[in-house]
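Quick one - first record:
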Amino acid sequence: MNIPFNKPYMTGKELWNIAQAHANGHLAGDGNFTKRCSRWLEARTGANKALLTHSCTAALEMAAILADIQPGDEVIMPSYTFVSTANAFALRGAVPVFVDIRPDTLNIDEKLIEDAITERTRAIAPVHYAGVGCEMDAIMAIANKHGLLVIEDAAQAVMANYKGRPLGAIGHMGTLSFHETKNIISGEGGALLVNAPQYAERAEIIREKGTNRSQFFRGQVDKYTWVDIGSSYLPGEIIAAFLAAQIEEADSITRQRLAIWNTYHQWLAEAEKAGKLRRPVVPAHCAHNAHMYYILLPDLAQRTAFIDKLRKVGINTVFHYIPLHSAPSGQRYGRAHGELPVTTAMAERLVRLPLWVGLEEVQAEVIQHILASL
């Protein structure tokens, strides 16, 4: 077999849209396709403003600027996340404060957040792991109590909900990813969801290199100039054209991925009962998007053996993050709040299985190899 871990899904309309962008003669940012994608995101999430960016990393960096993060400030987040979650704030001179995760969802443990708050804390950055929502009601209550901002890292959570509310649109700001490893893709790409209206105008300015360019094109000012700090966070129109083809099929893509996820979940139930693995946990009030299907094996040695066995038959499975609190720069720029035992244990046990549209044609055979490798 030759089963990749990920295979980017194409709707068939991407090249047509790109040709249209070319014919329109607008290839820089904020053309018609960019606006179409932004309107779709605003309609689907309820965000006050959705701004496409060239990556979720860029959206996080914008959020850190909007939050006015200063040197010495602290931002609470999980250690079990991608480096961009921490880097966006470390670039501003802030200290990422790593809190342990829940053993069920692998999301930040909301019960540990309040104890990690100090006089320097400015924000909480929950990460919706595998498209399963963090306990946002509790997190927002803590933030409101202490006057903190909530910046959702919803990179993995497009089309997912918490108690009926789209992930990324619950906190003050949220960030999305359209990287080719995600469900809805544009190769590289992301978006900033500005949910608190007071940040919307400045978000536009930061995204356009610190200029009031958008106000100029709306006729609100007679010339545009440098008015704030910022950078070039816009994606090109070709990226947006690709993404526009994807979002037209977002519901269909999500349904197909959920079917594959559910097949894994059903077929691996007996192995879980036998104590060979643990399946993902999705709380009843969370509607996930089948971003990934992972299993937790008993220990690191068994995980290594499992990955090797499947590799030999041509099935590519992978582990995930090295916890940031154990990374060289995590120790240099951040600090752990406590020992983080759940984070350390889960990072050594987790394996992600192949999940991409089209896998369903060979999934039964893949599952048989998985079961034989346990």
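second record:
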Amino acid sequence: MSSYLVIAPILLQFLISVMLMFLWKKVMAQRILSIIGSSIALIFSIVLFSQVWQNGTMVIQAGNWEAPYGITLVSDTLSATLVLLTGILGLAISVFAAGSIVNARARFGFFPILHFLFMGLCGSFLAGDIFNLYVWFEIIIISSFVLLTIGGEKAQIEGAVKYFTLNILASVIFLTAIAVLYGITGTLNMADLSLKIAAIEDKTLVNICAMIFFVGFGIKSAVFPLYFWLPASYHTPPHAVAAIFGGLLTKVGVYAMIRVFTLIFTLDPFLENVLMGVAMLTLFSGAVGALVQRNLQKIFSYLIICHIGFMVAGLGMGSTLALTGAIFYMIHDIVVKANLFMVGGLLYRINGTSNIKRMGEMYARYPLLSLLMAVPLFSLVGIPPLSGFWPKLSLILGGLETGNYVLIGFILFGSFMTLFIIAKVWAEVFWKKKEVTNPPANFRFFEAHTQREKILILIPIIFLSILSLGIGFGAGPIQALSERISGELSDVSTYITIVLGEKSN
């Protein structure tokens, strides 16, 4: 019975989405059901994580077709952790959306599509078949495109076109890579691919295939030079949508990169150099891009790009310690980035603008809220002992272990640039005197929101801030979790044996 827990997060999100469609015009009922459904999904994800932690990797073969012939869903520690984080963010964003999404958007299917997106995310993390990973990616793209365009504003449509165009290109490249991979191995099951790829003598062909995958995943992850779609689109949707985008969507590409380059392809010196080179350029370009922005959402968008570089760097170094840092950084970044975009939404409602030059006096007017917002802002910087510090320490130690001193320099550059940018944001938004601004037409300041709306907007920010503090001050369990994940990724024999059984011998 416990093996059916693997598919439960996917089926539950699908069921919630269908139920919400029957409440199409009942906006309040949609808000309530979304929160209840997300709470149940979080419970299931906690149970799944607990089972995997105690009993190891869990597998379900759809239709009882044995691997590698059927559709396989696999929950190892990495998958279970990301499904758990999806459940946590799903609940936080459902609550935030219930207080911030206007009725007009809710009546156009916002909540059903939101849970359809959560279903695609869970499916991506649990896919044990490379083609089904592609299918889940397409579900994510379709759902996110709808969420980007609900409201029909000019900036939204423009951002959605850029987002959709580049992600469809990434999907075409991904599908091409799958076709090449199937052509040289005759299988699509990821555990089986691990065995078949290792037996191929033509390593040049394998590396070409690996590079095609890297380009496809690189677009989805927004690495250099494939990142320009992200800051052009992530500032346009409602802040609840931007929160799930900033927290999880780019991490799906990073997850796929980590999974493919640890399970299927072995990192040789050529691939390691490519990954580390891209990581350095991503760190640099993301930091410089954030430095010149005035729109708070665009600043956060460029910082997403910059910090993707930390994770790619950890993968590229090829050591277990560096991979531990990359996993820890992913966990920290998912929580903090989602919270930052919700903080951006709250600041917009208070000030009537996202331009930091037009903000100010936040600390004087809202001292307690300012201290709350300081948690994700300075966790992002990695000031010790906040959550961003510990994974960077592992990455730097991993760089020293492998002798990648130039990469360490870029990691430090990205860290100091993030500190400078966040200090600039803090000075502009919280300390300086506020300029008089004219809000958009029909704009409703935060003070004009009902008490219920204020509570629903603040609760998820408080919740994720407490979680960030917990990750920072209680870093030991997260470090142990990251070490276990990196150990499983470094030695995939157990994964292969559990998925394939006797066929792996």
